Structure formats: C-alpha cells, structure tokens
Amino acid sequence: MMQHLPILQVILPLLAAPLAALASRRHLAWHLTLVATAGAFAISLVLLATILRTGTPIIYDLGGWPAPIGIVYVIDSASAFVLPVVSGIGFVATLAARHLVIAEIDARDHPLFFAAWLLTLAGMLGQVTTGDAFNIFVFLEISSLSGYALVAMGAGRDRRALPAAFNYLILGTVGATFYVIGLGLLYMLTGTLNLADLSVRLAEIENLRPAYVALAFIALGLFLKMALFPLHLWLAPAYSHAPSAVTALMAATATKVSVYVLIRILFGVFGFEFPYMTQAVGGLLLTLGLLGAFVGTFAAIVETDLKRLFAQSSIAQLGYMAIGLGIMTSAGIAASFIHLFNHALMKGALFLALGVIAAQTTHLSLHTIKGAGRQIPITMTAILLGGLARIGVPLTAGFISKLYLIRALIDSGLWAVAALTFVSSALALVYVWKIVEHAWLTERPENAPVLTETPGQWAPAWILVLATIGFGIYAGPLVEAAFGAAQVFGPDIIQATQTIEGLQIIEGLEGQE
Amino acid sequence: MQDDPVIRVVAKVLIPAIMLFALYVQFHGDYGPGGGFQAGVIFAAALVLNAVVFGLHRARQVWPMRYNLMGVSAGVVLYGGTGVWSMLAGANYLDYFALKADPKAAQHLGILLVEFGVGLTVASVMVALFFAFAGRLTHIRLVAKTAAHEATDSGTSRPGDAA
Amino acid sequence: MSEIAAHWNYYLVIILMMLGFYAVIARGNMVKKMVGLNIFQTSVFMLYISVGKIDGGTAPILTGDPASVYSNPLPHVLILTAIVVGVATTAVGYALIIRIYEAYGTIEDDEVAVLIDSDQDARERADAEPAS
C-alpha cells in the first residue's frame, strides 16, 4: 500500500466527499470528514518523512501509463513540503468546524457543507500532487467551485456572502481561464502537458515568442488566484462574509496552493534562465509584492471589521511571498516556502480564534471585542499571539520567515526592498495594537452580550498557535525542509552555504533563551 | 403546455426513445463516439422534457430529488471504486489491466465501469440543476411581486427603477 | 496577408475572447457577466479544438487503414473536461445570481453594491450603540 500513498492523498478526501453528502444521521458527515482529513494528514506526514529520508522523488503513474503519455503524480521535496501544510490545516479546521458549523450553518445543509469542504481540500491536495499541467487546472476548478459554494453558505448569517461569492466566482474563473489559455499556447509549442517534459522541450525551442505570451497568461491567471495586488479585490469580501470555518480553511490554504502552483510553473517549467524571467517577471513580482504589502497593511489599519482586517493583512502576506519569488534566487524561493508555511499556521490560528467569537455574535468588529480580553482570555491571547507572529516578533514563526526573506533580499543586493519590507511588517504593529487596546485596555460595555469559551472551542486555534511558537523557537527542520523544497527548482552553490548559516542563526537564538 | 394533446403524445413517444438512445450512447461508447458525458446529458434531457411537458411536480414524482444526490454520489464512488479495485488487485490506481486476466476484456470492463459512473453522475447533476432552478421559479416571482409592491406602496422607487 | 489567412482561427478566437472578456468587465448585469464569461471560456475551447485539427484528418477512430490521418484527439479530451468545468461554473454562477436576486431584489452590480454599503452601515451603527 505504501507505493499508493501519492494517489491516496488525493482520493481519500475526494471519495469521502460523496459519502459525506449522503450521510443522514446528525454529525455523521463531520465524523467522516474528520476521519478523511486525519487520514490525509497522516499520509502527507509519511510522504514528507519518506522524502526527507531518501531525497528521491516518488513518481506515481496513474492507470499504469508512464509519463509523458500518462498523467503522473509527483512527490518531491517541494510538494512534500506543501502537502502537510494543506492537509494539516484541513484537519485542524475540521476539528474546529464541529462547533462553528453547528453555530453558523443550518443543520440540513451539514452533509453538503462537509462534502464541499472535502472536495475543496481534495482539489488543493491534487494541485500540489499532480505533475500534469492540465490536471492542475482541473483540481484548481474543483477546489474553487466548492470554495464558491462554501463562501456562499455564509448567506444564512450575512446576505453579503452571496455577491462576495459571485465576484469571487467571476474573477476566479477568469483567472483559471487565463491559465488554460497560457497552457494551450505551451501545448501548441511543445506538444506535451507533463510539467517535467514541458521544461525539457521548452529549452529546445528556438522561437520563444508564443512562450512569452503563455508565461504572461499563466502568471496573470495565477496572480488572480493568489490575490496578488492589484488583483486582490475578491479576497476581502469573500473571506469576511464566509462562515468562520471556511474563512480559516481558505485563508490558510487556498491562496498558498496558488503560490505553490506559480512556483511550479515559473521555476519548474520556465526556469531561471528563461529570457526576461529575472528582469520582467522578477521585477513585476517585487513591485507588486511590495505594493501589496503596503496596501494590505494600510487597509488593515483603517478596518474595523475583524475578519476583513485579517483578510487585508493576508494580501500583505501574499505580497511578501511574491517578493520572495521576485528575488529569483533559491534563497528567495526558500523564504517564500517558509513564509507560506508560517502564514498558513498563523492565519489558521487567527481565523479559528476569531470564529469562537463570531459564532456568538452577529457581527465581528473591534466594538464587539471591547473588553473581551477579560471575558475570554484564552481565545483573545490566541488572537494576540497570531497578530504578533504576523508582525514578525522573535520567538514566533513569523520572525523566521521575515528573517529569511530580508536575508535573501540583502544577499541579492536589494537593500531598498529589504528596508521597505521591514517597514511594512513593523506597520502591522498598528492594527495589532488596536486589537490589544480594544480587548484589554477598554472596559466591556454594560449592555454588551457576555462572551464565553470552552476548551472544545479554543483548542483547535491553540494547536496552531503552539505550532507557530514551536516553529519559531525550533525552526531548524522547517528551514532545512524549505531549502530542500527550493532546491527542486534549480540548485546553486550559494544556497548550500546559506542553509548552514541560517541554521547557525537559529542555534544562536536558541542559545539566548 | 400540459393541456396540448399533441405535445403530450409526442413527449410520451419520445421520452422512452431518448432514454434508450442515451443507453446506446453510453454502452456503445467503447466502440464508437459516445461515452458517459454525452449519455448522461441525453438521459437527463428525457427527464427535463418530462418536467417541461407534464410539470415539475409530476417529474419529481417520477424522479424524486433524493435520487439526484444518490446518483451523483454513486457515480463518483463507482468511478473511484474502480480505481481502488485495480489498486487492490495489485496495480496502480485506475490501471484496468489488473481487473481481469485477458487484457482486452480488462480494458473493456474498466472503461465500462468508469464511463457508467460518469454517466450516472452527469445525468443526476443535470436533472438536479434543472429541478433546483425550476423549483425556485415560484419563489422568485414572489420576491419580484413583493419588491414591486414595496416600490408602489411607499412611493419611493428602488435604485435603478428610473433607468 | 496570407499570414493572416493561414491563421484565421487564431484571429477568430481572439475576437471572441475579447468580446466575452469585455462583457465580463463592462456589464453591470450579473446575467450578462455570466454570458460574457461563457463566451470567454468558449473561445478558449475553440482555440484548443482548432489547434487539434489536421488538414485532411478524420475523426480519431481506428479504422484499420494505416494511411488515414487523424486529428489530434488530446485537445478534444482536454476540452471535454473543460466544458464540464464550464457547465459547473455556469450552474454555480446562476445559482448565486438567483440567491442574490432573492436577497437583494436586483441583479445589477451597482445596485447590489449600494445595498452592501447600507448593510455595512447598519452593522456599524448597531456596534456603536449596542442595543440591549
């Protein structure tokens, strides 16, 4: 059975979805979902352990047809790094979904909710696992379509979820269609859809003009999907009006998977040496990433709606990932991978903790949490720690990713970008302080509803908070795995030394404690 | 439309023929053009015709809503289950050669099962979509009526009424 | 000129693509947006299908004649999948439009935007003076 793990990773949630849809007894759908996501998480951990031990990619031929004719699923250092992030967040979010979904979704819709939940997870895992470019599109649409439905299920509490889901659908479909156009051009040029085969054949082609157009279309489509500034406008409404559990799942995983696909296509297919890659694409990613970091942070500072506040900060975080890619070095990609991991943890923790409050109030804003720090201290502390990780305070995982991002920028001589990145992260302090001020330094108004918390409610958020702190203190394995993942896309010599230096810094930090 | 005898008789003659044709497209897909997607849509067209001619209520008696959910799920499980079967038989996922000793028969069986799963899902999805949209019609009319009432009652027009 | 004539399918696809994309961006009516989106997607389907065509090629069905030339079936298969995805997208889109109409009484983008703003204002007022 071991050799079947790459496919089981995807079909376990995929086949659990129709069963969950049929589940008639109360909570049966949730139990099925929990088992399926736990299984998927376990499989991804086994795959990661195998890859870390052997270092050789696992290639699985679907239907026994070898590449490039058949569709293959490829588990290498990069996909094995992302899989546990997606399935792990899926598992923890499912744990929290029990009480969040009971609070926010009509009981009759639970089976279909969990079916869509599993499908979106299967779609994301599929995008990471597959080695076929068209397969990525199909899984992208599986996860997106069920995602639109999940966002729209917030309509029971807030009708604004419907137009938000509709705009998300329009922009998401345009993005996916752009991706398919680019892919069509690549297929015309090379006659293959296998990612590895594409990169080999692309290198042999002399007239690259259609490939430039293809690159532009694919990059644009994926920028839309990953909500890179200025294509981010669908994100904030969709995340703020969706049910809390959905916000946690999607904010932590959906855009990250698109970042991964972008890395796959940009560096796995086109490669660093592709003409204009460094100047045009790299420059564009750096510029848009920086703009996104500032625009997202400023938008978060003026926001009072808490879900929307952290959705805006997601745009800033995606900007940092884009900056990492824009550096166009292995160290930059590794920084993006580290940030992808950390951001998934802290955004998951933040939105799950916010969900505890959202389930009890009609509206989640700075006013609703006035003085909440004393009423629900455990939940509010989780939100505070998530916010601190988001700024990049030492001893949280957020610090590690900022550290590697800024180091990668400085190593490439991009001092100005490094300084601006630092400034924009520091600005995040403003809105985190706003939360502290409202939650702890203000008295709770007399007539405000009493908030409660139970271990069952805050435990899932705290699992992720503890992971954030854990990886912030003991970051060695994470950094090593991320550099291993970046190595898939073009090993160079500088990077090997950097890994060691990076580890030394971490050890130095550990010594200081 | 329910009262027109010509349409009723023609529909009664056509519906079984369409269903039969769908099955032909489904199972002849191994030898010629056809397959689950096309067959599923054709089969659903028969049920949609039934609903259009005899009314949604009658169509739902013939094909209750819960059949749709069952059909969708069963189709996906049949497709995935075929893959799991070949895995249990010791080959890769969806490797039809493992299903039987004779390679030709194995391929035949594999594609037949998978395509049947596709057909089942597509047919159920199409019928479910039609039922879902058509079932909303009375609801929508009600919304439109209330909106019109509010506009005339209060004397204020909804935004865009002037346009 | 012959260059253009030889690639007429691309020009057709580009015109169709831009028509659909324009409708998605410029139309305020959500149904028209969906129509535009469908045209946009269909143009991509046609791009793939026209690329698979080979001059004098027949349908890719085995006839036993070794000299016969087939069209490339792979784009057809890909687009069959993409069409199904397109149908699903359209269905979800129209389902959302119906729900938006039921919730807001309109399917015009700008009118819904006005109502969304008023929803936001109502919630903020409710926050500022929490009712008992």
Would you kindly provide a written description of the structure presented here, covering whatever features stand out?
The complex is a heterotrimer of chains A (513), B (163) and C (132). Chain A has 513 residues and is mostly helical. Chain A is built from 20 helices and 2 strands. Chain A has a domain of 238 residues. The C terminus of chain A is likely disordered. In chain B, helix 1 packs antiparallel against helix 2, helix 2 runs parallel beside helix 5 and helix 4 runs antiparallel to helix 5. Chain B starts with a helix and ends in a 9-residue tail after the last helix. Chain B has one domain. Chain C is mainly α and 132 residues long. Chain C has a single domain, classed as Orthogonal Bundle (Helix Hairpins), CATH 1.10.287.3510. Classes of the chains: A mainly alpha (513), B mainly alpha (163), C mainly alpha (132). At the A-C interface, helix 5 and helix 6 of A face helix 2, helix 3, helix 4 and helix 5 of C.
Ends distance of chain C = 76 Å
User: Overall pLDDT of chain C, averaged?
Assistant: 84
The CATH class of chain C turns out to be: Mainly Alpha
Portion in beta strands of chain C:
under 5%
Instruction: Return the domain count of chain B.
Output: 1
Average pLDDT over all residues of chain B:
82
Shape of chain C: elongated
Number of helices in the DSSP assignment of chain C: 5
State the CATH topology of chain C. Helix Hairpins
- Fraction of residues in β-strands of chain B: under 5%
Describe the largest sheet of chain C.
none
The residue fraction in helices of chain C comes out at over 70%
CATH architecture assignment name of chain C: Orthogonal Bundle
Cα(first) to Cα(last) distance of chain B is 35 Å
Uncertain residue segments of chain C: none
Largest interface: A-C, 37 and 40 residues
